[in-house]
Amino acid sequence: MGEPTERIDDRLRAFIEAQKVFFVATAPVGPSGHVNVSPKGLSDTFAVLDPVTVAYLDLTGSGAETIAHLRQNARITLMFCAFEGPPRIVRLYGTGEVVLPGTASWDQLSALFPGRSGARAVVRVALERVSSSCGYGVPLYSFQAERDQLERWSERKGPDGLATYRRDKNSSSIDGLPALSPTGDWIGARSIPRQVAP
User: Fold this and answer.
1) For residue range 4-19, what is the model confidence (pLDDT) as tens digits?
2) Cβ distance 112 to 55 under 8 Å?
3) Which residues pair with 58 in a beta bridge?
4) DSSP helix/strand/coil, 15
5) What is the pLDDT of residue 143?
6) Domains assigned to the chain
7) Radius of gyration of the chain (CA)
8) 94: Cβ contacts below 8 Å, ≥ 6 apart
9) Alpha-carbon gap, residue 125 to 10, rounded angstroms
10) CA-CA distance, 148 to 89, in Å (whole number)?
């Protein structure tokens, strides 16, 4: 069993960067509304920026729950599980912000990831807690390959088709919370204080 900490050390960084999939959890404020958990994958779409900051490339999908929840309250948890090798689960708890194309941080952050036609944002997370646990209950799986359907779908849509899709499908959460505006922007983007590692 691991001890909780506030930082990602070299050992945890190596584990995180070796995983092929991770999970993102967010929720609206209050007793109602839907908790959301999303699997994320595709190579090189997650980055450890420093011991207290991570980011991932957010690709166009059928919903925008994470964006809507971050806009409302900024709470986010990321989870990595070892499906191969020694068992381990790592959870990253923090405060997230959405960085959109055309904003001040977009060029710098998006350059960390491979160019993908469906990229709609980068989610950057300032960490408050890092924990690891045994993962004994997580089954062993063997990685075969990444799926290419999302990339091919995005390429077929093209920039105009993706903009229309985001307008129609990503403007609000399933609970009606605002997410992306009709033009694809994140209305009232929240800023979080940048934590600098000593």
Assistant:
1) 888 999 999 999 999 9
2) yes
3) 121
4) helix
5) 94
6) 10-169 (2.30.110.10)
7) 17
8) 54, 76, 77, 78, 125, 126, 127, 128, 129
9) 18
10) 27
